[in-house]
Design goal:
heterodimer, A: mainly alpha, flat, B: alpha/beta, Rossmann fold, six-stranded parallel β-sheet, 6 strands, about 60% helix, about 5% strand
Chain lengths: ~100, ~475
């Protein structure tokens, strides 16, 4: 096992704990927006899609895979954040002014 | 490390920190919006930074893909109705899983084209992320089809189902082992992806509509894991951190939801919940209720509501289907004008997604401090004059408390039957999403107000104002 891989695994394990810790106190009221926000965050895969689509690999098949990965990644990121924002802008308390 | 690489690494670190802070801020309704904006900024930083990555040699495919994908995502996110939110999230999630699988496939082709055959440690993350991503993609599409009612929401079961699934799983494992053992070829890889897609479809088919929220949450965490493993394949720490955050938080959320229904995750996934109503159940329910259903007119109910001190409203998916949330808001406002104390009781799995009712009521401008979670509101039902159940069924079903052979036995419910009076607004006597009879309707304290929830609530709101 290379030193580099070991570092990646370390990051991975620490991130698991951060992930559990950071959402363990979310009230169920916010579960839908939370799910939608984490859904948008895994849209980070669009970065991987950019690297694959930009590497120009494997002729026609490579192009199709690159473009398709970009399309799906972009839908995930843009749609995920837009829909979360739309939900959250509706959550208002009694004290705050309503439109 | 070149200067650019160093800057990129720091940019990705900033992204990871912003994602973590964003999730942290999402834990309170006051700061949730800031949280989402922080995460958005993190995403923009990552995407801009990647534009400077030296391995990008051609922009055409990136731009074509972005120009097609981004508008689709944005427009559908703006247009979707709040009631259809669960299936929208399922679709976006499927897109992410599909993207992860495609990225791994692309990376496989890149290695395959290279001069030396890829080694097993290069292949392992690629194979894993294409499998998990494909399962998530196919599973999400089926979940979407069920929620959108493009297919039946009931569990689809057939003889030998478990055996078929086991065979597909074995084929998947066999092909993966074969590839990793050094038999690297495109057909084998295609076979792996095909088997994973099939497994995603077959895995979600036997799961009933009522359990879809848990499934979507689980598939969400699957996509997170797929993205993290893709990070191993591409050597990208930002993918590893972000994907793992989603994987871990999604797993936690899935377990919280399963707990809220008092079911194990295995029971949700393999139990075919709600497949066929059990024979003994109807009699048990009748025995518990011991009487006929009492139906009431809107005027009677309105008078009772107007002259009570405290009313607790328990909304369910039926309210959403009838688009009655604005009328409910009006009714609550009219009651409050008369000095009636109005609270909303939100069951954690009411609706088709955890927290779904909160989103719908927030859309109708009900302030969130009027919404109460189950554990907080349950002790208050005894003191309430009226519990008004609007389109909720399974989450108020007392069979969960005392009918041992009921499929929902043990699920925590809203104790609406403890209130002095119960009014149930319902379209008909049909069973809920889970397909189970509800003895609450036959309770002597219960009055049924049949009809479309929106019409009924509008009538109630008008009559309360006039009373």
């Amino acid at each position: 096992m290379t030193e580099h891989l070991l570092m990646l695994i370390t990051i991975f394990v620490l991130a698991i704990f951060v992930g559990f810790e950071v959402i363990s106190k979310v009230p169920s009221m916010l579960h839908t927006p939370l799910m939608s926000a984490t859904n948008a965050i895994h849209g980070i895969v669009v970065v991987g899609a950019m690297l694959i689509a930009g590497a120009a690999i494997g002729g026609t098949v490579g192009h199709i895979i690159g473009i398709a990965a970009m399309i799906l990644g972009a839908i995930n990121v843009v749609g995920g954040f837009a829909v979360t924002e739309r939900m959250l802008e509706m959550f208002k308390g009694r004290t705050e002014k309503r439109p | 490390m070149t200067a650019t690489q160093t800057i990129l690494a720091f940019a990705y670190l900033v992204t990871a920190v912003l994602f973590i802070l964003g999730l942290k801020f999402l834990s309170s309704p006051r700061s949730a919006r800031t949280g989402n904006i922080l995460a958005m900024i993190g995403m923009v930083i990552a995407v801009v930074a990647t534009c400077f990555d030296a391995s990008i040699i051609s922009w055409t495919d990136i731009i074509i893909g972005a120009l097609i994908g981004a508008p689709i995502g944005f427009v559908s996110a703006r247009l979707v109705k709040m009631t259809a939110m669960p299936q929208m999230v399922a679709l976006f999630n499927g897109a992410g899983g599909g993207a992860a699988a495609l990225v791994s496939t692309g990376e496989f082709l890149r290695l395959f084209e290279g001069s030396a055959l890829p080694t097993w440690d290069q292949l392992l993350p690629i194979v894993l992320s294409s499998i998990i991503g494909s399962v998530s993609f196919a599973g999400s599409i089926v979940a979407f089809a069920k929620l959108q009612e493009l297919m039946t929401g009931r569990p689809i079961t057939y003889a030998g189902q478990q055996i078929v699934n086991a065979i597909v799983l074995l084929a998947l494992l066999g092909l993966s082992g074969w590839l990793l053992a050094g038999n690297v070829s495109v057909p084998v890889f295609a076979g792996i992806v095909g088997a994973a897609l099939l497994l995603g479809v077959l895995g979600v088919l036997p799961i009933g509509g009522a359990d879809m929220p848990v499934v979507i949450s689980l598939l969400n965490s699957f996509t997170g894991v797929a993205v993290a493993v893709t990070g191993f394949a591409l050597n990208s720490t930002v993918l590893i951190i972000s994907g793992t955050l989603v994987g871990a938080s999604g797993t936690l959320l899935t377990m919280l939801m399963a707990t809220a229904m008092n079911r194990s995750l295995a029971n949700v996934l393999f139990g075919a919940f709600g497949a066929a109503p059990k024979a003994g159940e109807a009699t048990a329910a009748a025995a518990a209720g011991g009487g006929a259903v009492r139906s009431a007119s809107a005027e009677d109910v309105a008078t009772m509501l107007a002259y009570s001190r405290s009313v607790i409203i328990a909304p369910g998916y039926g309210m959403a289907v009838a688009q009655a949330q604005h009328a409910v808001r009006e009714l609550a406002a009219n009651l409050e004008k008369r000095g009636v104390d109005v609270k909303f009781a939100i069951h954690p799995v009411a609706g088709r997604m955890p927290g779904h009712m909160n989103v719908l009521l927030a859309e109708a401008n009900v302030p969130y401090d009027q919404l109460h979670e189950m554990d907080e509101i349950n002790p208050q039902f005894e003191a309430a004059d009226v519990a008004l159940v609007i389109g909720a069924n399974d989450v108020t079903n007392p069979a969960a408390r005392n009918v041992q052979n009921s499929p929902i036995y043990g699920m925590p419910i809203l104790d609406v039957d403890k209130a002095k009076n119960v009014v149930v607004l319902k379209r008909s006597m049909a069973t809920g999403f889970a397909g189970i009879d509800n003895p609450l309707f036959e309770n002597p304290k219960t009055m049924m107000l049949f009809g479309d929830a929106k019409d009924s609530v509008q009538k109630l709101a008008a009559d309360v104002a006039a009373a």
